[in-house]
Amino acid sequence: MSMRLGLANGPLPATSDGFTAELADQLQGWGIHALALHLQDADVIVGGAGRRVRDLLAARDIRVVQSTGFAPNLVDPDPDVRREAHARIRRGLAAAEALGAVMVNTGVGSYHPTFAYGPHPANHTSVAVDTLVENLRVLCGEAQDRGLLLSLEPHVQTTISDPDTIAAIAAAVDHPALRVNFDPVNLVGTLPEVFDAAAAIGRMGARMGSFLGPSAHVKDIRPLPELVLHLAEVSPGEGYVDWAAYFEVCRSLGEGAALIVEHLHGDAVEPAIAATIQLAQRHGIALE
Hints:
- The protein is α/β, with parallel strands linked by helices and 288 residues long.
- It is built from nine helices and eleven strands.
- The chain has helices at residues 21-29, 42-58, 79-99, 126-145, 163-173, 191-195, 197-208, 243-250, 269-282, and strands at 2-8, 34-37, 63-68, 103-106, 149-152, 178-182, 212-218, 220-223, 231-234, 258-261, 286-287.
- The strands form two sheets. It has an eight-stranded parallel barrel with strand order 1-2-3-4-5-6-7-10, surrounded by five helices. Strands 8-9 form a two-stranded antiparallel sheet.
- 47% of the residues are buried.
């Protein structure tokens, strides 16, 4: 099986004017063929900059796979918040289409007052689940109309917190445009899941497999030696992720799915890309 090696964060800019030939050449030199972008200038992108970025990257066989959803709150019961969430997603869909992206990848929001992935007990109630399903049914149709997927970024602190809940929500929405990004580190919340990552990742694949999209995020996880539980993201290969189990799920994502290294900056980026290439090759995944 082959996958497209991808990157999020790192040297990628926050606005479209940050994409230069020099940056595109650097990405090509690293072997990058897919990007997950969090560009904030949607109006500029839709107005023509999206085509410039798309062409600049295409000349180097790099494609935008994921584009941001602008942090919508899709679980809040307030109708004004829901209207704003729909507007954010629509902005994201328009920008993604202009960039030639495969999907908008987005979190679902939170009751937490300041952080879109923040913990709050109300995130895990039936009210939050029902509100999310209602919103997704509408927005998936709009994504499909633009030829895009609407991909959800799971997280243990939000409403899409575990494989069973995610599978139930996706089944309730029941729309072909809805997908879930494979990001197992985001769904780890206990030490047993860290230390038996093969079993945890296997459960994720078994429960969510039919809803996963053509994308996976690459990172690792390690508990810190502190008096209360802290689970830290670390570079690929520096934690407890079971890579045999991880790449077994990746094989179900389809030929050419994107394998996206994320959340690293500065001098950490290039070694993480090299480690990802080695891990993929070790487990029989060809990168293109």
